[in-house]
Amino acid sequence: TTVFAKLTPLQKARIVKALQANGHTVGFLGDGINDAPALRDADVGISVDSGADIAKETADIILLEKSLMVLEEGVIKGRETFGNILKYLNMTASSNFGNVFSVLVASAFLPWEPMLATQLLVLNLIYDTSQMLLPWDKMDPEFLKKPRKWEAGNISRFMLWVGPTSSVFDITTYILMWTVFGAGAMYHLNGGTGGQIVMNSGWFIESLVSQTLVVHLLRTQKIPFLQSTASLPVLLSTFTAIAIGCWLPFSPFAEAIGFMHLPGTFWLWLAATMVGYILLAQIVKTIYVRRYKQWF
């Protein structure tokens, strides 16, 4: 440990800048007039309630008690907040990328839209409402051990890795609805006008369930539910969203939105699809973490 004593105000500021030049995030604690330049240059300037006025004006944080423990609590809460922001941005970017890619593929091969505008609005409303409680989620202890820096490139990289994973199972759903559940047969039997409601209903449910359920997988680099579990508000919001989405085709609003009842075998296929999606996403996550040494 190197100790500096009897420094001038400019020397204190030079030490702060030297540490910053080496990539460190620097905090400086001072209460006198001579500490003002270093307090100004530090990433976090800390003073005390009994310090000089200029020191308190320059500082970012003023301690009202003779203890630094409050700073530890603040740092942990700040890292939790930053982590949850990264979660939302990564999840939203990858989800939207996957959905757009799926719609482009469907538009190229299907004779009608895979989902109506009203249905897309309903889907986004349910999903986005469920994500409003994400700020109350927990972060894994490993994430909180060291500070993280904002890197915009990580979001695009995360999006390109995770986004296409959902598209694989969206396209699988298209094929199932077209072949197994009769959307293609209805289209040909009714002169090109049938089958759309079947396709819309099936993809709406699959898309909403996969988007919402995968939140629990993407929120942590660990195995969801077994090694890391979301907070209770997030658990309730996501599973409520899934329940509402599965209820809509049976609701009084189904016809107005453009949905229909789906056969019981659809739900078995849906469960199998979700299991496959979770397994593939977990494999992609494992490869991603091994390659880039981090998840967020």
Automatic annotation (TrEMBL):
Domain Cation-transporting P-type ATPase C-terminal span(s) in chain numbering: 114-287
Membrane topology: Multi-pass membrane protein
Phosphoprotein among keywords: yes
Places the protein is found: Cell membrane
Molecular-function GO terms, alphabetical: ATP binding; ATP hydrolysis activity; metal ion binding; P-type magnesium transporter activity
Chief location: membrane
Designated name of the protein: Magnesium ABC transporter ATPase
UniProt source species: Burkholderia cepacia
